[in-house]
Amino acid sequence: MTITITAFERSPDGGKGLARDMRVRWAFEEVGQPYEVRLVSFKAMKEPAHLALHPFGQIPTYEEGDLALFESGAIVFHIAERHAGLLPDDPNARARAITWMFAALNTMEPTIVDREVARLLEGDEIWYERRLCVVEERIRKRLSELSDRLGDADWLDGEFNAGDLLMVSVLLRLKGSGILDEYPNLSAYVARGEARPAYKRAFDAQLAVFITASNG
């Protein structure tokens, strides 16, 4: 049965692989499962047909027969549960991997996205510099904690799993900020994720959409 996900017709990330369909593409590539992509415009994302799939009018969505899912983390979890390669067989290791999935999306990502919101929407406010400083210190606190936990290991809990996939995806949002560079083991961790063949295939697929839209 054909699996279809949605992605931006014109991604605002500039082809950097930060749009959240990238996480889903990467998961599919890791488990070796084919999928199709339906591109949607910002206008279409707010229309009834898309809102029936995603009540908040965002991407990605996942469709397979009569199953429709939204939220990138939920979709990655579904893929990981259905196909071998992203969750360990051992029950305890599996539970820990799922814990890291939640940690990536609930503990790490909100503060990092808060920085993006401040930079994009609040730069003209008189309190912007102070707010940015506070947000970046919160990010550093979380990165320090994560750095201490990772130590000199390659991955968060043994072999690469869905927890690493989501954590690397989240940390990639800090590339170019200089903040991630303050934590060499985390920078190396992200680089290992980017070096995975499955990541490269997913990145190239998303970048191709951006290039096509830019040339169109």
Total of DSSP H or I helical runs spanning 4+ residues: 9
Mean pLDDT: 94
Strand-residue fraction?
5-15%
Main sheet, how many strands, which sense, barrel? 4 strands, mixed
Categorize the overall geometry.
globular
Widest sheet: strand ordering: 2-1-3-4
Q: Structural class of the helices, strands and pairings?
A: alpha+beta
The name of the CATH architecture of the largest domain is Up-down Bundle
How many domain regions? 2
Order of helices and strands: EHEHHEEHHHHHH
Question: Which fold does the CATH topology of the largest domain refer to?
Answer: Glutathione S-transferase Yfyf (Class Pi), Chain A, domain 2
Work out the number of β strands: 4
Terminal-residue CA separation: 31 Å
**Helical amount:** 55-70%
Poorly predicted ranges: none
Assigned CATH class of the largest domain? Mainly Alpha
Radius of gyration over alpha carbons?
18 Å
Keywords: Transferase
Organism: Rhizobium mongolense subsp. loessense
Protein name: Glutathione S-transferase
GO molecular function: transferase activity
